[in-house]
Amino acid sequence: MKTAKIIQDFSLIDEIEEATSDFDKEFVSRSLEIASQIAYILDSKSLMQKDLAKILHKSESEISKWLSGFHNFTLRTIVKMEVLLKKRIITTEQEVVRELFKAIEKFSFSKENMNISAPNIKQETTTSQTGIIIPLVPGKLPTDAKPNFKELNIQTSNTVYKFYQA
Amino acid sequence: MIVEIHKIGRLAFEKVHYYTVLVKGRERFEYMDFLTRMSSNANYKNQLGKIQQFITEIGTKHGAHPAHFKHERHAEALPPPYFIQSGDVNKYGLRLYCIRLSTNVVLLLNGDLKTNDNPEKCPNCKAHFALANKISKKINDAILSKQLWLNGIEIQWDDDFELEIN
């Protein structure tokens, strides 16, 4: 049985990557991410590309191009798909954090309520009876935290949120 | 002519391992030849950078799903030769012919600036398109006859198997 030999020297790839602008790299990355998310939603709803084409009154080849990962989507197109598919395609970090807080409030903890704060998010105070998880500046415990708090790190694309659970 | 399959160590990512081929008697690996020729033309650098970024993105994050590639013909009969769209409107753009063997294994071959809708009528692309088709057919035959197989991210073949194309 034979396997492929490995080519180690392909320095030209490095040169091409270095010569590519950050904008072009990020455009490809984000476009692929959106295309991948649409494909995921279609799959989760057992829909095919042709179904999406029908819903949007587009040709199947156009939808195929959209999902290839190089399409320059407009916000209007994305929102139209979100409405018709009843699923979010793009979610901002602040939306993720808000959803996270809502989910956290459903958990039960023994400590009393405490403030919740996070960068770029309006400070909120939980009034639920469920208690306490506190997102903080990385690495800092709340001044009134007990030393035996468990630490939970949640990494979003831009920030690490540290939560402390009694 | 005899064709050797080699793995590109620089492009062995978590989701996809990329391979290329060396046609015996030729100086360069096919993908190396594509990069060398296209990077020497300043007009192509932008598209080339995007294609390379695309390859990296699906390799690191998404996997080589069919939706990320397009095939031109023989889709039902053979593992087809795929190309990556440039995304530029009203221009054919660069074409890189590939063979997607699975979500984790892709052979990157050769290509050029496409100048005709039909790759067989494009003076730049027809030879690369033909080579991709021939290799694709041979690999498909070899898989069916169990002389060549995929073991996860590895392409393996019998000791006495040679990829020979006319």
Helix residue percentage of chain B: 25-40%
Bin the strand percentage of chain A.
15-25%
The count of DSSP E runs of length 2 or more, i.e. the number of strands of chain A, is 6
Order of helix and strand elements from N to C terminus of chain B? EEHHEEEEHEEE
Q: Biggest sheet of chain B: strands side by side, in what order?
A: 3-4-5-6-2-1-9
How far apart lie the N and C ends of chain A?
A: 56 Å
> Strand order of the main beta sheet of chain A, please?
3-4
Main sheet properties of chain A: 2 strands, antiparallel
Shape of chain B: globular
Strand percent estimate of chain B: 25-35%
The SS-based structural class of chain B is: alpha+beta
Radius of gyration of chain A: 22 Å
- Uncertain runs of chain B with pLDDT below 50, 5 residues or more? 74-83
Which consecutive residue ranges of chain A, at least 5 long each, have pLDDT under 50? Answer: 107-141
Give a description of the structure.
- The complex is a heterodimer of chains A (166) and B (166).
- In chain A, 45% of the residues lie in helices and 16% in strands.
- With 166 residues, chain A is an alpha+beta fold.
- The N and C termini of chain A lie far apart (56 Å).
- Mean pLDDT of chain A is 72; it is low at 107-141.
- By secondary structure, chain B is α+β, with helices and mostly antiparallel strands.
- Chain B is 28% helix and 30% strand.
- In chain B, the strands form 2 sheets. Chain B has a 7-stranded mixed sheet with strand order 3-4-5-6-2-1-9. In chain B, strands 7-8 form a two-stranded antiparallel sheet.
- At the A-B interface, strand 1, strand 2, helix 1, helix 2 and helix 4 of A face strand 1, helix 1, helix 2 and strand 8 of B.
- Strand 2 of chain A pairs parallel with strand 1 (2-12) of chain B.
Secondary-structure topology with pairs:
The complex is a heterodimer of chains A (166) and B (166).
Chain A: E1 2-3, E2 5-7, H1 11-19, H2 22-44, H3 49-56, H4 60-70, H5 75-85, H6 93-105, E3 115-118, E4 121-125, E5 150-155, E6 160-165
Antiparallel strand pairs in A: 3-4, 5-6
Helix pairs in contact in A: 2-4, 3-4
Chain B: E1 2-12, E2 17-23, H1 30-39, H2 45-62, E3 70-71, E4 81-83, E5 94-100, E6 105-113, H3 126-144, E7 148-151, E8 154-157, E9 163-164
Parallel strand pairs in B: 2-6
Antiparallel strand pairs in B: 1-2, 1-9, 3-4, 4-5, 5-6, 7-8
